[in-house]
Amino acid sequence: MGPINxxxxxxGLLGFFGVMFAVNGVFVYVATTTFSGTSTEDAYxxxxxxxxxxxxxxxxxATGWRHAATIEGSQVVLTVRQADGRPVSRLVIEGRxxxxxxxxxxxxxxxxxxxxxxxxxxxxxxAHGQWQLSATVHPGAGYSLPTYEMTTRLWSKP
Length: 158
Known about the structure:
Shape: elongated
Number of strands: 8
CATH class of the domain at 65-156: Mainly Beta
Helix content: 25-40%
Radius of gyration: 25 Å
């Protein structure tokens, strides 16, 4: 191989920066097309009602209600109990279940009362791994609570 001259240096620099720009271009394309960055569609409106959500959260905490969610086969089971362990009935619960990192697999679900504070939603079967349940709970007649939202992470075991 002969001595390195200006042409070798020029081609070396052009090749290096060409590869760098191409790889960065691929990274920018993938980053901007795979996740919108939006975790909630109405963030501005929710921000305006922030104090209202704090009061709702305090009202729910004051009841002592405890929520527990599990994935059982092709169903999501949500159990709601009072502080003393008695079941909470007459709730209307609807929500979404999806992967925590993407909205591509989100599935809208509606829970049906199964008795003893259990609410069951059919999912048609979920793949193994981590899921996030976001539910809107509408307390029925006899409760002086506003509609509220709950979010929890679930694990579907292999």
